[in-house]
Design a protein that fits this description.
- Strands 1-6-7-8 form a four-stranded antiparallel β-sheet, sandwiched between helices.
- Helix 3 packs antiparallel against helix 4.
- Strand 3 and strand 4 form a beta hairpin.
- The protein has two domains: 123 residues, no CATH class; 46 residues.
- The protein is an alpha+beta fold and 181 residues long.
Length: 181
């Protein structure tokens, strides 16, 4: 698995809505590199089935929701506006429950045959390489996993909320031998 040609990098940048390629070259935070370049030295721990699982990071949102609920409760008790406060608190509880249900079962699983996402499975044999695309946008970073097919097409998967170094390590450990040549 080697570096991608510049034309493919440009097309990936365009598809993902990144900056124009001319400015992309100037900004060092924007990269398209093989996933194995993000890997840690030690192998990623595996479960009983020999797979690596990642859960999406949702606890910061839970903490923010709970803090807003606490502030609403405090203001409601201080101002003695129980009707409006109860309504706001009810809406916040419903939003927290929806957030928990939405993020509870979301995980990425890598094993020797495939990458399993919440919506689909991607088999290693269908692809010739895995690349991680990172770039800074506004106040955060965006991370995508780009799986290259033999005919120079690709699948881009949003990896926001995952640790890309652990993901790169798992890909390095699970990728087919043909990719390592």
């Amino acid at each position: 698995m080697s570096e991608l040609p510049i034309e493919i990098k440009e097309a990936i940048c365009k598809e993902l809505g990144m900056l124009h390629w001319a400015s992309f070259n100037k900004i060092k935070e924007d990269t398209i590199r093989p996933a194995r370049k993000y890997a840690f030295y030690n192998p990623e721990p595996v479960n009983r089935e020999g797979a690596v699982e990642f859960k999406y990071l949702a606890w910061p949102l839970w903490v923010i929701c709970i803090l807003f609920m606490g502030m609403t409760l405090r203001v409601m008790l201080y101002l003695e506006k129980y009707g409006l406060g109860a309504l706001l608190l009810g809406v916040e509880v419903i939003l927290l429950i929806l957030l928990i249900k939405r993020t509870q079962g979301r995980k990425v699983r890598l094993d020797r045959q495939k990458i399993s996402m919440p919506d689909a499975d991607y088999y290693w044999t269908d692809f010739t390489g895995a690349y991680i695309v990172t770039w800074r946008k506004e106040k955060g970073s965006n991370y995508y996993l780009v799986l290259m097919r033999p005919n120079n097409t690709w699948v881009s998967l949003d990896m926001g909320g995952l640790n890309i170094n652990r993901l790169g390590t798992a890909i390095r450990d699970m990728e087919p031998i043909s990719w390592k040549e």
